[in-house]
Design a protein that fits this description.
Elements (H helix, E strand, L loop, with lengths): L9 E6 L14 H16 L3 E6 L7 H6 L4 H25 L4 E5 L8 E2 L2 H9 L3 E5 L9 H11 L4 E6 L4 E2 L11 E2 L1 E2 L1 H7 L6 H9 L4 E5 L5 H6 L6 E3 L1
Helix pairs in contact: 1-3, 5-7, 6-7
Length: about 240
């Protein structure tokens, strides 16, 4: 069969820290991250310019700290540093697949990652390097969802791919409500009106104001990233 053609030239994948857990309850499952890197290599081999915004929930979430009485800013900074650890791991896994990768941290840590300089990042993408973003936008109170939307706009990505543990966007949490129904497509305004947990409201508003579509799909099914990139009808499209 002929190789499928990508529907998008440049994409940003939002990858949660939980995606790296595999069978673990905390930390990084290296078999899982290797499998994800192999899927990302397939996207790269299609000629797609790929950036990844990585979360840190598998190591530390800021809200865990605030629930325990920590200052919100301090807790969020710990969460941002957790994403840097994941960024190092993902870069290593990708480069073991033979994919040239650049790790970009919004918190300056010169010995392990490059700082975010928009023109330099775009140049990396143009040269066929995969870019891994960590540390969100470098500030507390902003989620990695918002950071994904902002970076996608800055690098002129054509779509955000939101990899999750469910098949798309539902009327309610399908893990809790068996009667929840999936949307095949939904408008940004309806997501905001219904309070659906696609991404946080700031991220959705950024995408809405700049007409940047989001495709929400299940990461657990092998090949779904490639299907989304190639324009197959999977998950839910938010537009």
């Amino acid at each position: 069969m002929p190789e499928p053609k990508p529907a998008y030239r440049r994409v940003l994948l939002k990858l949660s820290g939980e995606a790296l857990l595999g069978a673990r309850s905390q930390g990084i499952d290296f078999e899982r991250i290797t499998a994800i890197a192999a899927e990302l290599k397939e996207i790269h081999d299609l000629g797609v310019e790929l950036a990844v915004m990585i979360g840190g929930g598998n190591i530390f979430r800021g809200n865990r700290g605030t629930e325990a009485g920590m200052d919100r800013a301090s807790a969020d900074q710990m969460g941002l540093l957790a994403t840097v650890i994941n960024g190092i791991a993902l870069q290593d896994a990708l480069e073991k697949q033979g994919v040239v990768t650049r790790h970009i941290s919004a918190i300056e840590i010169k010995s392990v990652a490059e700082p975010f300089i928009r023109r330099r990042v775009v140049r990396h993408l143009e040269k066929g390097r995969v870019v891994v973003f960590s540390a969100g936008i470098g500030s507390p109170y902003f989620t990695t969802d918002t950071a994904a939307a902002l970076r996608a706009l800055e690098i002129k990505a054509e779509v955000i791919l939101k990899a999750t543990k469910v098949d798309g966007v539902y009327t309610a949490d399908p893990m809790k409500d068996k009667k929840a129904k999936q949307f095949h497509s939904i408008r940004f305004m309806d997501v905001l009106k219904r309070g659906l947990q696609v991404m946080d409201a700031t991220a959705i508003s950024l995408c809405k104001d700049n007409n940047l579509p989001i495709i929400v799909f299940n990461l657990k099914q092998r090949g779904n990233i490639k299907r989304a990139v190639c324009g197959e009808n999977i998950g839910t499209k938010v537009y």
